[in-house]
Write a structure and sequence with these properties.
It comes from Nocardia fusca. This is PadR family transcriptional regulator. This protein is mainly α. It has ten helices and two strands; from the N terminus they run H-H-H-H-E-E-H-H-H-H-H-H. Helices cover 58% and strands 6% of the residues. The protein has a two-stranded antiparallel ribbon with strand order 1-2. The protein is elongated. The C terminus is likely disordered.
Length: 219
C-alpha cells in the first residue's frame, strides 16, 4: 500500500532526483527538469514548482545553503538535498517500482460509459485514436533510433516502457475496433437496438445491456 508522503506531488520526486549532485536555485531546477525530459514523464505544473520546493524544505528534504543575485533580479535562494531527502527519494522510488497502482485515465473513463455511443461511432473514433497512437509510436521509435549508442539503456528505460504501453494500447484498440467493424463483438445487436429504438419498454433487453444491469436477459 502506498505510503502517505509529507510532500506527495510527483514533481517533488523529480526535484529530489535532479538535485542529487549539486545545489541549485529554482530556475536551475526547472532547467534541469526540462533538460532531463522529466516534463515528458511527469505531469509537471510549472507554476507549482516554487511551492513544491518550499514544501520539500519545510519537510526537511531540502535545505537552504545560500543565495545569489544578478543585477536587478530578485534574490535566488539556493537549495541542496539533505540526507533525509536522499532517503525519501530512494524509499519513494522503491515503492513506485514495486507496488502497482491502478491509473484511471481519461480513456478508461470513456470506456466505462462506451455504451452511450452507437457502435459505428465507436469504431470510427477508435480509428482516429489509432491514427494518433501509430503516429506517437513512430515518433518514439525514431527518437530511440536517434539515441541508439549515445545513451545507456538505463537512462532510456522510462521511454522504453512508454513505447511498450503505447504499442499494447494500439494493439488492444485495433482488436476492439476490428470486432466492431466485423460484427463479432458480443451482444452487438442489443447495443445497436438501444440506439435505434431508444430506452422504451419494448426494448428492455437492450436497455438492460446498455445501462449495465449485469444481464442482457429480458426483465
Amino acid at each position: 500500500m502506498a505510503k502517505k508522503r509529507k510532500v506527495g506531488n510527483l514533481l517533488a520526486l523529480a526535484v529530489l532526483a535532479v538535485m542529487q549532485d549539486e545545489a541549485m536555485h529554482r530556475y536551475q531546477i526547472a532547467a534541469r527538469l526540462r533538460e532531463y525530459g522529466k516534463d515528458r514523464d511527469i505531469d509537471i505544473k510549472w507554476g507549482s514548482l516554487y511551492t513544491v520546493v518550499q514544501n520539500l524544505a519545510k519537510a526537511g528534504f531540502l535545505e537552504v545553503v545560500g543565495s545569489e543575485r544578478e543585477g536587478a533580479r530578485p534574490e535566488r535562494v539556493i537549495y541542496r538535498i539533505t540526507a533525509a531527502g536522499r532517503r525519501e527519494l530512494v524509499d519513494w522510488t522503491r515503492e513506485l517500482i514495486a507496488e502497482p497502482e491502478p491509473e484511471r485515465g481519461r480513456f478508461v473513463a470513456g470506456l466505462s460509459i462506451l455504451a452511450v455511443l452507437p457502435p459505428e461511432d465507436v469504431a470510427e473514433l477508435l480509428g482516429r485514436r489509432l491514427a494518433v497512437l501509430d503516429e506517437q509510436i513512430a515518433q518514439v521509435r525514431a527518437e530511440f533510433a536517434e539515441l541508439a549508442g549515445t545513451l545507456p539503456r538505463l537512462f532510456l528505460i522510462e521511454s522504453e516502457y512508454g513505447l511498450t504501453v503505447l504499442e499494447a494500447e494500439a494493439e488492444w484498440t485495433r482488436a476492439l475496433r476490428a470486432e466492431l467493424v466485423e460484427g463479432t463483438f458480443p451482444d452487438l445487436a442489443e447495443w445497436r437496438a438501444w440506439h435505434r429504438n431508444g430506452p422504451g419498454v419494448d426494448n428492455a433487453r437492450a436497455r438492460a445491456y446498455v445501462e449495465g444491469a449485469g444481464s442482457t436477459t429480458d426483465q
